[in-house]
Design a protein that fits this description.
Elements: H1 21-50, E1 58-63, H2 68-79, E2 84-89, H3 92-100, E3 106-109, E4 118-121, H4 127-143, E5 150-152, H5 165-187, H6 193-218, H7 226-251, H8 254-263, H9 265-271, H10 282-287, H11 292-305, H12 312-335, H13 358-363
Parallel strand pairs: 1-2, 1-3, 4-5
Antiparallel strand pairs: 3-4
């Protein structure tokens, strides 16, 4: 007896209901809010920081007889109040060491009576501080009716003649890590937290390697220790991913925007951009060296242009950001797993007929 055959189910899947008015409004307003947030964040933070850079407490040293430092400080304060912070040193060697430790940006040497002082500068500290220190020195010697000598004890290399390669590499790493974490929170939100955190660690290592390889051996902006360049790049990437993940864990979806605000517009503006942080308004200059980007830029500058002197402080700052941010993110994930406002699902995982046939709509 032949077995009965089952007729194929030709019933069409139920049509996908169109989004209601509230859902449509959310879909359209969401991108607008994100775009406006970026405009307000970048314009509201970066323009006030960089629109009118002026020197504040630029550190310089003085070597000379007793009382010379106080005299120079009074002269500088008379011409440019609060522009300089003068420190006296006992010897030329001590002043040179302070320059090479990136503690001061210039040193006035009064080593011979009745002779104009010699100015020592560290060109690797950046164009802005060298220009303002040199201008102050030239004004002092002009008032004395003499012309002195200027020596650059740590010049910038030809491969980075403007001293901005560290800034540009840091911006690239921050943007990449920020986008990675933001997209990961959408594309991989259904994955276990362990896999998402391992993906973040893997991305930081790969991005740090690619960035260091390009900035170092390929482009040649940094000529020196590749492992140190790689280490700073990885630390910065880990810090950014950790900050955004921690903000997500604490604030939910809003945390992505808050994390982005901290690491990108606030990070770039407080770093000083093309000028030194001593030229920023008080708020930005105060937080500059405590931010991930500011610490990374200072680390690179000291590693490659100041023989690695005095580099532990910015490196430790970066490491603290990484440790604290990742610990907060891991703990927050265990207490309250992240739930995205929008879940991205691959089309291949949708049931047949779930998406409307747009071709049929056009044909009708």
């Amino acid at each position: 007896m032949p077995s009965p055959t089952t007729a194929p189910d030709t019933t069409a899947p139920p049509p996908v209901p169109a989004p209601d008015t509230a859902a449509t409004r959310r879909m359209l307003l969401g991108p607008m809010v994100i775009g406006l947030f970026l405009v307000l964040a970048f314009a509201g933070l970066m323009i006030p920081a960089l629109q009118d850079p002026k020197p504040h407490d630029v550190p310089i040293g003085v070597v000379g007889p007793a009382g010379t430092g106080d005299k120079i400080d009074q002269q500088l304060q008379a011409g440019s109040p609060d522009a300089f912070d003068v420190t006296s040193y006992r010897s030329e060697g001590a002043a040179r060491d302070a320059l090479m430790d990136h503690e001061i940006y210039g040193a006035l040497l009064f080593t011979a009576p009745q002779e104009p002082p010699t100015l020592l500068v560290a060109g690797a500290a950046g164009d802005a501080p060298v220009r303002v220190v040199t201008a102050a020195y030239e004004e002092l010697t002009r008032q004395a009716g003499a012309t002195g000598e200027i020596q650059d004890v740590a010049p910038l290399p030809e491969s980075d003649s403007r001293g901005v390669s560290g800034l540009l590499l840091s911006i690239a790493l921050v943007i990449g890590a920020l986008l990675f974490q933001a997209v990961l929170s959408l594309m991989a939100a259904r994955l276990p937290a362990r896999k998402r955190f391992l993906a973040g660690l893997g991305y930081a290592v790969i991005a740090g390697g690619v960035g260091a390889l390009l900035a170092g051996p390929v482009i040649g902006a940094f000529d020196g220790s590749f492992p140190q360049l790689f280490g700073v790049a990885v630390l910065l990437s880990l810090a950014v991913i950790g900050v955004v993940a921690a903000c997500q864990g604490l604030l939910g979806v809003l945390g992505v925007a808050v994390g982005a605000l901290v690491v990108l517009p606030l990070g770039v503006s407080s770093s000083g951009g093309p000028v030194d942080y001593h030229f920023l308004p008080d708020f930005y200059s105060t937080i500059s060296q405590y931010m991930p980007m500011g610490s990374a830029i200072t680390s690179l500058r000291r590693i490659f242009y100041f023989d690695g002197n005095n580099v532990m402080t910015p490196l430790l700052t970066l490491a603290v950001w990484v440790a604290v941010a990742w610990i907060i993110a891991l703990v927050a994930e265990r207490v309250r797993p992240f739930r995205p406002a929008v879940l991205v699902v691959p089309v291949s995982e949708l049931p047949p007929g779930y998406l409307p046939d747009r071709r049929a709509g056009r044909a009708s």
